[in-house]
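Why should sequence recovery work at all? Because a backbone constrains its sequence more than one might expect. Tight turns favour small or flexible residues, buried strands favour hydrophobic ones, and helices have their own preferences. The token representation captures these environments compactly. In the example below, the structure is given first.
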């Protein structure tokens, strides 16, 4: 049995009272002045030039190891997905993600559909909090935004807009609140995530998230065939006074399989990205990473909004 520690509660995706992102007010600040020359490296990629640092911007490096990374993914109508996104973001085609995660053997590669989802990421070690940590990120796959002169230098493999970020460690909660998240969008939560290895390398697992009461839960099964990943991703969130994003390198072996059951609290971010409060006939699948490593940086850029 594989059960990374997830005592109280990072990656794809998952709050009573989670709010839908609202369109930012005001005008983007295109003339923010850099306070230093371009940096020469980012975590794990010392040969890649980094986007310039703006005055007031904060950057926090992190490293997560020994992670279980189950993602519950749902194919959505693009118009419905777009209503969940703030100004400057557009829903991306699901094909941009599943070419990396894989799909069920009997399923065609989805084209012309958006994708939303959440995860039950549980990691044995966390450089920010100093112990184990668990996260549930809830979002929509998007095309990258335009931040003017502060747009990141290099494209990511895929981009996700975060409607909600659930964490179980105070250090991550404090980082989120200092980076434009509201307490409703980034609460301290209880997150459980575990997986059992079955015969012939198959796995079956479950995860759940609660904040005062259950918000989202799911069970899944995945096949033995694995797809090794070594990619870079960005997860975004826009506040009234700035833009936040995670940029990270993800290394894991990912396996695809069915979501067996799911339940989402009415009105929660889980229900919004899944398009349902319970799994019935929705097109959906799980993409589960084992022995996952995540290394990256959390960026908070005040005064800069997507154009």
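From this structural description, the recovered sequence reads:
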């Amino acid at each position: 049995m594989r059960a990374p520690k997830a005592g109280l509660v990072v990656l794809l995706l998952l709050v009573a009272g989670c709010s839908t992102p609202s369109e930012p007010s005001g005008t983007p600040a295109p003339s923010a002045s850099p306070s230093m020359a371009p940096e020469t490296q980012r975590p794990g990629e010392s040969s890649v030039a980094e986007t310039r640092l703006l005055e007031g911007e904060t950057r926090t490096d992190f490293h997560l190891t020994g992670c279980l990374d189950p993602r519950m993914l749902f194919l959505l109508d693009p118009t419905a997905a777009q209503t969940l996104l703030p100004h400057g973001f557009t829903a991306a085609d699901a094909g941009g993600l599943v070419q990396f995660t894989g799909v069920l053997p009997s399923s065609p590669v989805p084209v012309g559909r958006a994708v939303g989802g959440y995860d039950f990421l549980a990691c044995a070690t966390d450089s920010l909090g100093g112990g184990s940590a668990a996260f549930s990120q809830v979002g929509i796959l998007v095309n990258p935004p335009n931040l003017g002169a502060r747009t990141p230098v290099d494209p990511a493999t895929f981009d996700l807009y975060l409607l909600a970020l659930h964490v179980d460690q105070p250090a991550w909660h404090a980082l989120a609140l200092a980076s434009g998240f509201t307490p409703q969008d980034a609460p301290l939560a209880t997150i459980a995530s575990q997986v059992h290895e079955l015969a012939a390398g198959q796995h079956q697992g479950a995860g759940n998230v609660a904040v005062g009461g259950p918000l989202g839960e799911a069970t899944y099964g995945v096949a033995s065939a694995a797809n090794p990943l070594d990619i870079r991703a960005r997860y975004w969130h826009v506040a009234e006074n700035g833009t936040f994003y995670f940029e990270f390198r993800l290394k894991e072996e990912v396996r695809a399989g069915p979501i067996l059951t799911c339940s989402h609290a009415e009105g929660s971010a889980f229900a919004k990205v899944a398009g349902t409060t319970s799994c019935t006939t929705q097109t959906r699948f799980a993409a589960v990473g084992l022995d996952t490593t995540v290394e990256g940086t959390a960026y908070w850029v005040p005064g800069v909004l997507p154009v």
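A few observations help interpret the result. The longest strand covers residues 58-76.
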